[in-house]
Please model this.
Amino acid sequence: MEILLTAIIISPLIAAIAGYAFRSKSAWPHLAGSGISLLGAVYITLEVGKEEIVLNYAGLNGEAFKLLASFESSLLSLVVAFVAFAIFIYAKGYMHEENGKKWFWPAISLFVAAMQLLVLTADWFMFITAWEVMAFASFLLIGTWHEEKNARTGAVKAFLQTRVADIGLYIGIFLVISQHGSLEIPFEGEEKLSLFASLCLLLAVMGKSAQVPLQSWLSAAMAGPTPVSALLHSATMVGAGALLLIRIFPLLPETALSYVAILGSATILLTGLTAIFSSDIKKMLAASTSSQFGFMLLAVGLGFPGAALGHWLAHAFMKSSLFLGAGVFQHAYEGTNYKKLKGGGKRFTYVFITFAIAGISLAGIPPMIGYFSKDGILASSFKSSEIAYIIIALTGAFFTGIYIAKALNRLWNGHAEEKTVPKKLWLLVGVTALVAVVLGGGFILEKLVKTAGYEFPKDKISKILGLTVAVLGLVSGWFFRNSWFPKSASAWIQKNYKVAGGYRQLIAMPVLKIAGWAYSFDRILLGFVQGIGNTGIKFSGINSSFDHHLLEGVKNIGKGIKQAGGAGRKWQSGLVHKELAITIGVMLVLLLILTASIFTI
Model:
């Protein structure tokens, strides 16, 4: 059993390592890795109905790393594996004629391995590892087509914005570990976290789940291949933030829950409006993703993590189906702007039908899965008895109907050219697998959530009102036109409420300015250090020259003395007769000099 639990993570990881090692463009090893992960997840999910599976292995400071397969974690693992496998099948066709396959396939397998580790781990060290590996894989995947400027800037923006938020993750987890004295994730406990620790973790969620005001990175990430958008940015990575809140819900104090609800409410409305006014189908779906995760945060903040979990499960299938459908139209008409896709639904009728099913499910129309999950969210707001949250939840449901119907209208009305899509069968198989769950998954959703140990709220009034606003939203969205509103207002909303220049002016440019100042200071410091070094070299040269000449002079003096001594030694042979002759000779010379001096006087 432990081998199967490990295989869920290891099989896509091995595929990723092999892809990087051999630089292969083939999709088959990655399909195999994803398939093995899915089989392992299916078996583990069936087995944990009997008992939980715990796997300990070498850790840090005497504490073991831990994998935990409870019903909740194994269910999440199964959803990740199923969605990933369907998207891998789709990507086999989607990437057939695209560049960057040798970068794409290893990175997306690496991501799946990291996401599986995140949902199955029971210790903070491996949780952080999985969280950061997902971010790195996301950066690589968004930049798959790095030769394009939008892909490069989108990858950098996503990486930087989520990194800023991850400061909260590190501080928050450090405080949790300090409080509980263990690396083990405390899934329950009577002792609540401090408000500061809770808000730090909420900051991390804000970045990962693209909540206001850190939501703009998600639309920029749409520059990557559509399978990336479907897997990372709707079904899994963006969901990691919401999952963190669901897991630590028992530890959050009442005050922190209020902040969670407020943040979710703001995101529901603001990003819902962004989706409505969007003129690009993928950016609409990105804004919708932020809004839907806002619903999940609202449910957690109101005290119903089970409703958030139910919507998380449903959203993974609905939104990935929508992204894959949008990808077919993008492939056919080489763009994602509504103007390019106008009437494309008539040319790709089956894909349009699957898109419509997933879309009206997201809007909350029965009997699709979204009807049941959205009802849980609305029931949460009604049970809270807070009129503001009830209005926000209903308004968000109304907005969902508008942007879905608007997209359906643009895809259906118009006269698009007849187009062909390479490897279309692979695309359709992937979409069909996901849409099948959208159609039938709602009937078991509540049971799954309850089996995982959560309450799934219900309310008759919310059910009726939710269905009413969903229908009204769909009807309104079919006739909606951006031209009904001032261009300045719609442009501001489309650009994610850019204030004072937005991300570029408030974050990117200041960071670049600071980097420029740091570079200038570094150059000045380098010049100063080099100046001191050059001066030292010059003094060293002078000293070297002085030493050279002084030593040379001393050497010459010594040489002269040596030569004089040598000459003198010739005169001092030690022979008596020779020494006597020299002495007489010298005396005669002196005598001659003296005589000459006398006569001169």
Notes: The first helix runs from residue 2 to 22. Residues 142 and 224 are 4 Å apart (CA to CA). The chain has two domains: 2-500, 507-586. The mean pLDDT is 86.
